[in-house]
């Protein structure tokens, strides 16, 4: 009998969790570790912020999913992996042994700026600064904006110039107008420029959508610090805010580098074509927490979804001594941004369009994915 340990209960582990009955039927023991009894789907997080979705609509009841299928769920955080001893160390001090370990520990928003933002790490409570991960912080931000909008126009600053910043800004703007609220004044502090890695057509569509809402894009200087709700730019400008979102990109979990495992340039678990650690063959990984040795992968959920069947096959094969299957990342992927108010921007293979049809496509795809694993 093999001991399979799932470190993290995120997108890349959905197929593994669904296959627990098959794994246990073959005599394997399956244990999963996660920080909470539900896992939130990041692709629908901005929609939850904007009120399009309720929290239960964008999350998986992972504890129930695992335990009802015959697995064991441990609510805790992974702090270290002792690969030599084949154990995972938890924040509580508990050590969990494994024969095969699969990691889906996700990513975090870096705090490369000083002040209040530096203390808002890992979801620590803060009534002003809200990182976009973990996704639960977006729900806390929504409630904060709703409460403040009862009595005044809420000043919101979004630090970052990528897709997450765009989606958060558009949806945060909507929150202040709910239930007779006094609205929001939203600014995006985009660094050099908004959506700098996107085609010009997509950037123009985003800028036009933001302009219609009166959302200001502040470009040409990077955020240096957030102090007492005030955003300090490197050029000396200061902007007072009631709520600050951090959407500064994401980096892999620090667990791997802290544990002495071989990692990629950003600290993600370095894996080969089989999603297998290049230094420890009993360790696998998927999603944002890995560095794929054959070629760099963008930090987008589509890869975690595509990795599901390969992780399932290879973890099971490692337990049973069978041949591994290579992961093919595939070609171009579809990008759809939810910019609030039932509007979206879609881009793939030089095709780009916006409006309600773009949002409807995203909503259909997201709900279909959620339903597949919620049942």
From TrEMBL:
Source species of the chain: Desulfonatronum thiosulfatophilum
GO molecular function, one term: NAD(P)H dehydrogenase (quinone) activity
Name of the featured protein: Pyridine nucleotide-disulfide oxidoreductase family protein
Cofactor(s) recorded in Swiss-Prot or TrEMBL: FAD
Gene Ontology terms describing biological process: aerobic electron transport chain
FAD/NAD(P)-binding domain span: 8-294
Record-linked InterPro entries: FAD/NAD-bd_sf, FAD/NAD-binding_dom, NADH-Q_oxidoreductase
Superkingdom of origin organism: Bacteria
Ribosomal protein keyword on record: no
UniProt entry keywords in alphabetical sequence: FAD, Flavoprotein, Oxidoreductase
Entry annotated with the keyword Plastid: no
Pfam family, one: Pyr_redox_2
């Amino acid at each position: 009998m093999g001991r399979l340990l799932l470190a993290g209960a995120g997108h890349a582990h959905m197929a593994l969790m669904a296959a627990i009955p098959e794994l246990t039927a073959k005599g394997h023991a399956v244990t999963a570790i996660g920080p909470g009894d539900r896992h939130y789907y990041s692709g629908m997080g901005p929609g939850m912020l904007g009120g399009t979705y309720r929290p239960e609509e964008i999350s998986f009841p992972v504890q129930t999913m695992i335990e009802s299928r015959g697995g064991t769920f441990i609510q805790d955080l992974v702090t270290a992996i002792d690969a030599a001893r084949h154990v995972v160390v938890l924040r509580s001090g508990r050590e969990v042994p494994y024969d095969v370990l699969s990691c889906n520990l996700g990513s975090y928003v870096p705090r490369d700026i000083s002040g209040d933002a530096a203390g808002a790490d890992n979801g620590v409570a803060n009534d002003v600064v809200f990182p976009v991960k973990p996704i639960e912080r977006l729900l806390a931000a929504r409630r904060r904006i709703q409460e403040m909008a009862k009595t005044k126009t809420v000043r919101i600053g979004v630090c970052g110039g990528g897709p997450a910043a765009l989606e958060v800004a558009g949806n945060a703007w909507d929150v202040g107008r709910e239930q007779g609220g006094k609205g929001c004044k939203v600014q995006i502090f985009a660094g050099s420029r908004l959506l700098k890695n996107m085609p010009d057509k997509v950037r123009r569509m985003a800028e036009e959508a933001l302009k219609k809402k009166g959302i200001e894009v502040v470009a040409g200087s990077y955020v240096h610090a957030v102090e007492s709700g005030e955003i300090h730019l490197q050029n000396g400008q200061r902007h007072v805010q009631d709520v600050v979102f951090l959407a500064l990109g994401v980096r892999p979990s620090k667990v791997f580098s802290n544990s002495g495992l071989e990692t990629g340039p950003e600290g993600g678990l370095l894996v080969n074509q089989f999603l297998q650690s290049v230094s420890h063959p009993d360790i696998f990984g998927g999603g944002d927490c890995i560095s794929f040795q054959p070629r760099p992968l963008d930090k987008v959920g589509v890869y975690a979804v595509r990795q599901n069947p390969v992780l399932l096959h290879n973890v099971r094969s490692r337990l049973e001594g069978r041949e591994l299957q290579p992961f093919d990342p595939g070609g171009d992927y579809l990008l759809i941004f939810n910019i609030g108010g039932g509007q979206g921007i879609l881009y793939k293979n030089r095709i780009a369009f916006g409006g309600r049809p773009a949002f409807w496509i995203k909503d259909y795809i997201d709900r279909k994915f959620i339903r597949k694993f919620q049942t």
